[in-house]
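Lecture 7 notes: from sequence to structure.

We start with a single chain of 255 residues. Read the sequence below before looking at the structure.
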Amino acid sequence: MPAFPQLTLYPVTRRANSRTVVNTLPDGNIVAFSDPNGAWVEWEMEAKGLTAAEWESVQMLHQTVSGQWQTFTFLDPVGNLLAQSENFSASAWTNGPLLALTAGVNDPFGTSRATRVVNAGQAAQAIAQTLAAPGNYLYTLSVWARTSAGSNVTLAMGGVSQTFAATSQWRRISLSANPGQSAAGVTFGAQLDPGASADLFGMQVEAQAGVSDYKQTGAQGGVYSNARFALDGLTVRAQSTDVYDATIRIVSMGN
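Now the structure, written as tokens:
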């Protein structure tokens, strides 16, 4: 599936919309419920200072999907791409079989949403999540980590990894890299050595060069595989021969 090109798209406005269905019964009582098929997300991005090549990449995608007609993959520029960013035992995660997870640990925000992770195996084990995202974009993976056992934590995306020495104090560690994969689909995760133990909290993946404020996620992460252009036409203003300003609107019904 085609994907929206990786560009600098700020400022950006993101709106989440929902629909409530209301039934009025013959006796006058009202029954209301949320319609999951009526929810959608929309982004309006002020793409300023695009080069000619960057603008052409947007035009090419617009032509490929025939405007509003077909869908493409869009990575939320202001979101956490991972789902269930704090619930490492959720089905969104693929964890090493010999990892023991204990939830309800004190976290860096003063609540109890962190997880203690113990690797009881004889080989390295990881908490990982695979995203249906382009393998040749620049990403930043981050997580809060601490340990009382002198353990290391290794962050990895695709074939790129970096090892960090955790301490007894919470520390947000991060890895920025381009996985350099030709196929769509990248695995992101935090890995522990054999016998290692660490507390982890708030894993995040962003399609940008650095880490930003943490965004907690539930069942929906920031990868939208059925996004569409909101309009059949594109409007651009040429500031010079290689500087373009455009307003780009994208919508996605659910994920």
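The radius of gyration is 21 Å. Keep this in mind for problem set 3.
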